[in-house]
Write a structure and sequence with these properties.
Length: about 350
């Protein structure tokens, strides 16, 4: 046990049984977690200061793709106190000690913490993180569960990878070339109109660029999700002219399985038929990030995360490789093959 020596010393100094001292120490760690979640900063004498920093959403170029990263909250540590020692107030308010007991307890902890860090011994603060030597340096490593709690508002936002737009093959021409080229085009249009050899559609036809599949980087770390029981909202399918329902209403708070992400709606719809032939009822789910629009290919509608997980595990692996679960942020109507 990492903290065995510390709890034994705490038991001796406070005249407690070792098990009682261990329970008291873990209770103090829980009080530290509650304080950090509430106020995002905490100073403990003998240890230092913990504080939460916010990293805003960002985008970066990596080779031929653009990576969009969601915002993030991170737990930081500094060895110096950045405010008043909170040990005494935590012992009183969260551990229900009287002033005398709390004062003795906080002084004892400060001494043990300081000695442990000076000697660079391993120290585990349950729910906060651990201090340990690694790669030749004595460092603090935040607890993953705490960082997930600090980022619960961003838990459904994943890093998105999109291909960068290719640079235009032709460089912008100088003004000296623009005028002669314009004259040639104008003369050509006039001749076409006069002799009737060209139609207007020649000049106004739309060009569709080939689409590319977009890989989505998914964070596969297990996230603790507490499913709150609630009734499943009614689905209101929209009928196509032929009388066949080919749309789905996702209500805010629902969960869905995202199978793949594409740059164009046309490419996403092309993938629906083979999926449905395999028994997977898929729909196109438009969305955007940082001004860039893209199209998710999704299936299913679930009242909670657990139900979506069960469904995802039961689907053919080769058909859903790279799929992930997404919570619905706003009510939306999705279309399938009919593209209503």
């Amino acid at each position: 046990m990492i903290n065995r020596e510390l709890t034994e010393e705490l038991a001796v100094l406070l005249d407690l049984e070792r098990q009682e001292a261990a329970s008291l120490f873990n209770g103090f760690c829980g009080a530290m977690v509650a304080e950090l979640l509430a106020f995002r900063k905490l100073s403990i004498k003998g240890l230092g200061s913990f504080y939460v920093t916010h990293v805003p959403a960002s985008k970066r170029s990596s080779g031929s793709v653009m990576v969009f990263a969601p915002p993030l909250n991170k737990l930081r540590f500094e060895s110096a106190l950045s405010g008043a020692d909170a040990s005494l107030s935590l012992a009183v308010s969260r551990l229900s000690m009287n002033q005398g007991e709390a004062a003795k307890f906080s002084r004892t902890l400060a001494t043990l913490f300081s000695s442990t860090l000076q000697q660079e011994k391993a120290l585990h603060l349950q729910g906060i993180g651990r201090f340990a030597p690694e790669d030749g340096a004595y460092s603090f490593f935040p607890d993953r569960t705490l960082e997930e709690l600090l980022n619960r508002e961003y838990q459904d936002l994943k890093e998105v990878v999109l291909p960068q737009l290719k640079e235009e093959r032709s460089e912008r021409r100088s003004p000296g070339f623009i005028l002669p080229l314009s004259v040639v085009v104008l003369v050509g249009l006039l001749l076409a109109i006069v002799y009737g050899r060209l139609s207007w559609s020649t000049y106004f036809s739309s060009t569709v660029e080939p689409s590319k599949r977009v890989a989505t980087v998914v964070d596969r770390r297990a996230v603790a999700v507490v499913a709150t029981p609630r009734s499943v909202a009614t689905v209101y399918p929209i009928k196509s002219p032929g009388g066949v329902a080919d749309s789905l209403v996702l209500v805010k708070g629902d969960y869905a399985i995202v199978l793949a992400t594409f740059e164009t709606e046309k490419r996403a719809h092309q993938q629906i038929t083979p999926l449905r032939s395999s028994g997977i009822k898929a729909f196109v789910w438009p969305t955007s990030m940082a001004g860039t629009k893209y199209f998710r290919l999704m299936t299913g509608r679930f009242a909670n995360y657990s139900a979506a997980t069960v469904r995802l595990k039961g689907m053919p692996k080769k058909m859903v490789d790279g799929a992930y679960i997404q919570q619905v942020k706003k009510t939306v109507v999705l279309h399938g093959e009919k593209r209503l």
